[in-house]
Amino acid sequence: MRIGSLSKIEEYFKIVFERGRLVSSYIFTGGGDKFRIEEAKFLAKLVNCTGNPKPCGYCSVCQKIDEGIYGDVLFIESEKRISIGTIRYIQKFASLKSFSSPYKVIIINEAQYLTPEAANAFLKILEEPPSHVIFILLTSELRNILPTIISRCQVVRLKIRRSDKEKFLSTRVNLSLDQIRALATLSALKLKESEKIVKSSLWARRKSIFEKQKFIRQLSPKGNEKRKEFSFLLQSVLYFLRDVLIIKLTGDEEKIISQDLKTYIRDYSRHYDEEDLIEKLQLLFEVYSERENINLNVAYNLVGGLLWRR
Ligand SMILES: [Zn+2]
User: Fold this and answer.
1) For 93-103, how does the pLDDT look when each residue is reduced to its tens digit (9 = 90+)?
2) How far apart are alpha carbons 92 and 80 in whole angstroms?
3) How far is the CA of 159 from the centre of ligand 1 (A)?
4) Burial tier of 293 (Cβ tally within 10 Å: 0-12, 13-18, 19+)
């Protein structure tokens, strides 16, 4: 099994590809679905890219793979069930000569959804894989993949680091480096949600929390989506106070997570002492642990009160 951050795994693939040592079947697990797909595409681009250094990201092959429209890369998206019919289709696809590239790459997302019948048929393909085909199975549940399939694949376990998230987000959202760092650290956030947050008004609201007068205007909780928003805003407040405390204790601004809120953090730290901050953090953590059940009107008032209480 290979375990590593995205950059480590990519380096590893580059080396084994250069040495002609790629195997024909991989299983990617861990790291969240977006990164698994991203890494599968990376491998598909690496082996088929016509640019230099590979994968260049710019040649028409790389671009088509990114868009999911490249003829020699098959992406199977499962709807909680991958049937034997799909495996037959894969078999046919694998047996045909590739259109234009050295390798055909077949990516099966959430491969734990292979039906037992499909898994057995797939196993037969893996036992005698065509030489020009690379199979990449992606799964969030390795334990639900047939052991006989696992034994025929190299398992790659992705470990996502903050730098991986930052790199990924910087290609998706138009934010400064400081903002991307802060966003990537709001660690409970999934990438998909991070993108959504930036594209919604929530990202701007995060900043206005720390302007006392504006915070009051943010109180409009309604419906289900609002609870998620509250959760995000509360998390932002917790990170903010954590940063304020760090400044109080160490004076080291490099250690601030929400670098984009530095002026507010500095200002806030002038008005509260360490004991105040620790007390606020403790109370807010309690609110955070109740965030799924608490009445949102009460919660917003509580957080606002705590944040601005002297
Ligand atoms: Zn390329």
Assistant:
1) 999 887 778 89
2) 22
3) 25
4) exposed
Of 1.20.1440.230, 3.40.710.10, 3.40.640.10, 3.40.50.300, the CATH number of 2-160 is 3.40.50.300
How many angstroms is it from 64 CA to the middle of ligand 1? 10
50 vs 55, 85, 135, CA distance in Å? 8, 33, 21
pLDDT digits (tens, 9 = 90+) for 267-294: 999 999 999 999 999 999 999 999 889 8
* 43 or 306, greater pLDDT: 43
CA distance 236 to 254: 18
Please tell me the distance between residue 70's alpha carbon and the centre of ligand 1 in angstroms.
12
- Taking the centre of ligand 1 as the mean of its atom positions, its distance from the CA of residue 261, in whole angstroms, is 38
Tell me, in angstroms, the distance from the centre of ligand 1 to residue 49's CA.
4
Q: How far is the CA of 264 from the centre of ligand 1 (A)?
A: 44
Query: What's the whole-model pTM score?
Result: 0.72
Amino acid at 151: S
Q: Locate the domains of the chain by residue range.
A: 2-160, 165-308
